[in-house]
Structures are given as C-alpha cells and as structure tokens.
Amino acid sequence: MIDKIFLNMTRTSALLILFIVAWIFVVLFNQSTEAMQTFGLDFITKDEWAPNLDKFGAYAAIFGSVASTFLAMLLAIPIAIGVAIFLSEIAHDKIKGFFGVSVELLAAIPSVIYGMWGLFFFVPILRDMFGGMGIGLLAAGIVLAIMILPFMAAVTRDAMNTTPDILKESAYALGGTQWDVIKDVIIPYAKAGIIGSLILALGRAIGETMAVTFVMGNVHHTPNSIMDPTTSIPVTLANEFTEADSSLYFSSLFGLALTLLVMSFVVIAVAKFYFLRKVRKGQ
Amino acid sequence: MTAVQKRIIINRLALAFSTLSAIIALAFLFWILGVLVMKGMSALNWNIFIYEGSPPGYAESGLKHALVGQLILVSLATVIGVPLGIMAGTYLSEYGKNSKLAHTIRDISDIMMSAPSIVIGAFVYAVVVMPMGHFSAWAGAIALAIIMIPVILRTTDDMLQLVPGTLREAAFALGAPKYKVIIDVVYRGAKAGILTGVLLGIARVGGETAPLLFTSFNDNFFTTDLNEAMPSLTVTMFNYAISPYDDWQQLGWAAAFILSMFILGLNIIGRLILLAGKRK
User: Fold this and answer.
1) Radius of gyration of chain A (CA)
2) Residue A107, burial from CB neighbour count under 10 angstroms (0-12, 13-18, 19+)
3) Which ipTM did the prediction report?
4) In the CATH scheme, what is the homologous superfamily, with its name and number, of domain B50-279?
5) H/E element, A258
6) Closest approach of chain A CAs to the CA of B250, in angstroms?
C-alpha cells in the first residue's frame, strides 16, 4: 500500500519535468500567436522594432544574439583549448590544483557580476581604445567570452583527459614531441568530446542575460560594426518585459522568448545527443 | 634546419601559446575577482544589514530588504524544488532505471539544466503573474524551483546509483518493502551525495537574476508578504548598478560581494561533504 503511494509520488515528480517542459513550449507558443499572426515571417526578417507604432521585427535581436555568441566563441575557443592543453599536458600537479580551485571560484560568481565588471571596468577601456561609447557588440562578445571560458576550459580538459595514456606513450616512443602527441593523438581521440563541450558552452552563452544586458546598449538596430550598440533576445526581454503596454507588444516578447528557447534547445540537444553521446558510446 | 629542429621549434611555440593562453585567462579572472573583493569590501559596513533601501543620497541606506528577500525567495524555492527533485531522481534510479521513459526524462532534464533562465521567467510570468495580476514572491520562487529541479534530479539519480545493489538485496532479503529499502537503506547510503546536490542546487539558483526580473520583480523596501513583489540581492544589484548614483552603485558592489561569498561558501561546503563521504 505505502509502497504504491511512494512509487506514484516519485513517478509523478519525474513526469512533472516532462510536463513542465511541454507546458513551457505550449505557453510560449500560445502567448506568441498574436504576433505570429500579425507579422508572419516578417517577425524574424524585419528589424524595425517600434512599440509606439505597434511594429515588431525581431531580426536585430536575433542577429545580436547570434553575433555576440559567435564573437564570444571566436575569442574563447582558442584560449580555452590552450588552457585545456596547458592543464592536461603541461602544468605541474600543484598548478593544476590551484587552477581547478580558481575555476570553481569563478563558476560561483553570479553572471550579473560579470556584467557589472564589464560596464564599470572594461567598457571604459574599449571606449578609450576605439572611441564611441564602448557599449556594443564587441563589449558583449568579450564579457560573454570571459564568462564561458572557465566552463569551456574545464570540459575541454575533461574530454582531453579521456585519452588513454598508452596511446600517448606509444606516440612518445615513436619520437613524437609533446605537440605532435597533442595534435596527432589527443585531439583526434577526444575530437567528439571537445566539439560537444564547445557547443554546450555555446548553448549556455546564447541564453545568457545578465552578463550582456549591461554592455550591449539595447538599441534595436542591426549593427554596422562590432563597436555599434545593439541588442539580443535576452537583453530585449530583460529591458522591455515589464514595460510592455499592449497585447501585441507582449505577444512579440513571448515570440522572442520562444525563438530563444528553440535556438538553445536545438544547440544543446545537438551537443548532447550527437557529439557527447558518441563519446559515451566510445568508452 | 633539419626536420627534427623544425618540429622542436613548432613544439616550443605551441606549448608557449597554450601557457600564454592560461596566463591570459587567469589574468582576466583575477582582475574580476580582485574588483569584486576590493569594491565589495570597501562598500561593506554595518548599516547595510540594519537599514533598508532609501532614495540616493541618504546615509541611512542598506540592503536589509534585499538580504531578507533573497533568503525568503531561495528558501521558498528550496522547499518547492528539493522534494520534487529528490523524488524524481529516486524514480529514475530505483524504478525507471534503464527504461526508455527514464532515459527520456534524464535527457530532457539535462537540456533544461542549460536552458536560458530568462525564458523560465517569461513562462512563470504567463502562468503565475498574469492570472494573479501582480508580481509576487511566489512567482519568483516557482521560477527558481523550476531551475533547481533538474540539478537536484541529476545528482540524486547519480548518487543513488552509487549505492551498491547488494545492500538493497540484503534489505529485501530481510523482508523489507521497497519504499522502506529506499528510505532506510538507499537514502542513508547516499546521504552525503544528496546533501551535496541540494547545496549545489541552492548555489545555482542563488545567483540567478534573469528569472526574477519579471516574477518577484523588485522593491526598495522591507517586506515579508509573499503575495507582493519582493526584493532580491541580484535584482537590487542590477538596478543599483545601472543607476547613475554613486552611493547606490556602492551598495550594488556590497550586494555582489555578499552574494558571491554566500554562493562560494555553499559550493565549498558541498564539495567538502562529498570529499568526506568518499574518504569513508
């Protein structure tokens, strides 16, 4: 009797997860139908976002999300791979421990603090270097890159560490230098794991709100250069959700939220199911 | 230059590059940590814990409202999220095991762990704030709980699976029903692991700002009414930091420092518990 109740309670809780996820999609979809019906495809292809005229085109926000994430990946990937190589192949055990602790420290810092640092300390430097306001796509990309770097380096290192020692030793025995071993043994072996980890980091970066809200500018305009202020989906949501005053405005914001959810769901699912599953099977 | 010399030079360059990138990464990270500690420490004083928010320019302004609000929001989220997360994890590990349903739930929950938190905020806005007609602490806590559940589910599932099957079989052989085996044997064996999962879950939602922006919203005054908008450290920090007032910005850094220490503490305690458990 109690056994049955216990089983049902746990099963209900487990099914609740599936239910919540499905519910999120349904709610966001329902809420955004008005915008979808009014604008159709124009919603994602036009960049005119004028609440006072009841015109909502999300192109600038979508472009900003993609561009800032792309920029962040471009900056973070080489450094993260460098750090991972350093940690798995070069560093002394003591340094590894120290670095591991630092990474934990940084993972503990709320993302809003990265944004505050960006606004007060990094944007002024960009302003002095390149002129203009400093706030914009480049600032967002750099802050985002710094934020995902610890996570990215840690998972890439873990992927590299899965290479069996015996493979590395064989390569050394053939007279390979450390770099030969890294590029011809470790990287090919851990390729799927590394790519999966990088995409997972991308999935996190694309939905990040607070780190970029401070430094992006929230201007609905497709930028002409990486120094221009622009916006992204999470930035628009954070800034405008509580200000929306018409049902079409709300509906458009929910449309943005749905777009973001679908984008990140696809990215994370590809990383997890295509690349990281391969790794698990391979082991 | 011989081929060997060329390979040695390339090797040195590559290793130098990766050491350099480690130095660059560390430099940025210490810069941020340094700013947080310096700015936070210099803004800390007793007034922060005694006074609530006030208009800029008043000496008697503090963060009491946000500290208490944060505590209420996170506790409420813990009360909602922890039992659900542990029970769902229990189902996966003890009943679902390798069934298709269990794997689907694991996969979806894993994806949810990395899903954009602001979208959860929008969802809770639609299903809680809109029907109620106003922002509330409940809405904020529900949003945080939704983010917390996948984290706790995952660790509970992993930790329960570490409990040896022979322990379960021994209890079954004594005639114990399954729920008794789970509660008295499996949970007891995985106690440290589950506790760590709970602490990490709390740490994960403690630093969230985005899902609170339009659920619990914010308030510059002290409140304990769960049906009203409730201030939180993160949203207060955000509002104060983008304000043009110097003293508000100072308070923002103090809030950042306090919150980071709190989350860091949770992370460290969680890991220590796990280490102590392993040593046994």
Assistant:
1) 22
2) middle
3) 0.90
4) MetI-like (1.10.3720.10)
5) helix A247-269
6) 12
Residue B132 contacts A where some CB pair is shorter than 8 Å: no
Q: How far is it, in rounded angstroms, from Cα A12 to Cα B101?
A: 13
Q: Rounded to an integer, what distance in angstroms lies between the CA atom of residue A15 and that of residue A109?
A: 32
Split at pLDDT 50, 70, 90, the class of B280 is low
Q: Which domain holds residue A219?
A: 21-282
CATH number at residue A183: 1.10.3720.10
- Is residue A14 in some structural domain? no
- Is the Cβ–Cβ distance between B121 and A26 less than 8 Å? no
Query: pLDDT per residue over B221-236, tens digit each?
Result: 888 888 888 999 999 9
Of B167, B209, B205, give the one whose Cα is nearest residue B188.
B167
Asked if A85 reaches chain B (Cβ–Cβ under 8 Å), the answer is yes
Nearest to B67 by CA among B200, B269, B257, B267: B257
A254 lies in some domain: yes
* Chain A residues within 8 A of B82 when measuring between CB atoms: none
Cβ(B65)–Cβ(B47) below 8 Å: no
CA atoms within 13 A on the CB side of B244: 0
Question: A6-10, A104-108, B167-171, B213-217 — which is least confidently predicted?
Answer: A104-108
Q: Per-residue pLDDT for A107 more than 80?
A: no
- Given a contact cutoff of 8 angstroms between Cβ atoms, the answer to whether A231 and A219 are in contact is yes
Over the stretch B18-58, which tens digit does the pLDDT of each residue have?
999 989 988 988 899 899 999 999 988 888 888 888 888 78
**pLDDT tens profile A57-83:** 889 999 999 999 999 999 999 999 999
Interface contact B74, partner A, CB < 8 A: no
Taking a C-beta distance cutoff of 8 angstroms, is the pair A214, A119 a contact? yes
C-beta separation of A66 from A59 below 8 A? no
Number of compact structural domains in chain A: 1
Structure tokens at B45: 């004083």
- Angle of helix A187-206 relative to helix A59-85, nearest 10 degrees, comes to 140
